[in-house]
């Protein structure tokens, strides 16, 4: 079936898509608060947060015993004083995913009393860094790749590039299969 297609084109696309997969995670990262310890008292979530890099589009998720604990998004005052007045949001399903859709600092606390036992976490969400312009051009297919690399560096988001490349690949594969 592949004989009707241009092998070099397929090779080129596979290299580019493969490179894109290596550089950019295919999906937004889900940062599970406390990792396998979850959202519970007696854990230093500052240590946990210091070990993570949050980007716009990522998720922060809280895993805990439903009804016992919950999650409030508060401001610095709420975080410092363990108060939920004027909270920007709250979640209580026991497995809560919060979409980090803007840059900046976020504060989350438990609203059932756990905050004073350490159930508070503050994170900083960064904008997605521009794609490293040299990396795609570093593949052997210089002329075509350079064109793609410069287009890529103009894109605000590397993830957008990935979506485009995936669409190209899916289109290519389905056009081969439906021949
Ligand atoms: C948590 O760890 C951070 C950094 O290691 C430290 O500054 C902070 O005092 C700790 N918090 C508590 C409540 O122990
Ligand atoms: C930070 O991440 C490293 C590597 O994933 C891990 O080994 C370490 O336990 C983490 N530390 C904390 C405090 O989560
Ligand atoms: C927060 O707590 C501190 C010290 O406990 C207190 O001085 C301050 O007034 C409190 N702020 C608010 C807004 O309640
Ligand atoms: C946090 O929100 C409370 C309640 O809306 C408000 O009184 C307080 O001034 C806010 N603190 C900050 C630092 O924005
Ligand atoms: C929790 O959020 C809901 C909306 O999702 C709101 O109606 C409710 O007042 C909030 N609860 C508190 C205690 O802020
Ligand atoms: C960002 O997320 C919040 C809460 O999840 C939501 O209320 C808000 O509409 C979102 N904003 C955008 C621009 O998607």
TrEMBL record:
Keyword Membrane among record annotations: yes
Signal peptide stretch: 1-28
InterPro entries: Cupredoxin, Phytocyanin-like, Phytocyanin_dom
Keywords of the record: Disulfide bond, Glycoprotein, Membrane, Signal, Transmembrane, Transmembrane helix
Any single GO CC term annotated in Swiss-Prot or TrEMBL for this entry: plasma membrane
GO molecular function, one term: electron transfer activity
Residues that span the membrane, as ranges: 160-178
Keyword Transmembrane helix among UniProt keywords: yes
Residue intervals of the Phytocyanin domain: 29-127
Role summary: May act as a carbohydrate transporter.
Family under the similarity heading: Belongs to the early nodulin-like (ENODL) family.
Name this polypeptide is given: Phytocyanin domain-containing protein
